[in-house]
Design a protein that fits this description.
single chain, 69 residues, alpha+beta, 4-stranded mixed sheet, 2 helices, TusA-like, TusA-like_sf, UPF0033 domain-containing protein
Length: 69
């Protein structure tokens, strides 16, 4: 799980990119609290071959589940 709450772009994308490069996990969960970061991480994930599910985690927070296709 990557907790990128409180961070602004590009840091959440960089954190996901490092996790993907360090082992290409089949599933990866990411916590975010910024809608812009949700869009950017989703775009990166799609370009890296992951399907993305976005669900609200708490107030103003999002849980992204990335699954390798």
């Amino acid at each position: 799980m990557i907790d990128a709450r409180g961070l602004s772009c590009p840091m959440p994308v960089v954190m996901v990119q490092k996790a993907v490069q360090n082992g290409t996990p089949a599933t990866l969960e990411v916590l975010l609290d910024n809608p812009c970061s949700v869009e950017n991480v989703t775009r990166f994930a799609h370009n890296s071959g992951y399907a993305v599910e976005v669900a609200p985690a708490d107030e103003d927070e999002f849980r992204l589940t990335l699954r390798k296709q």
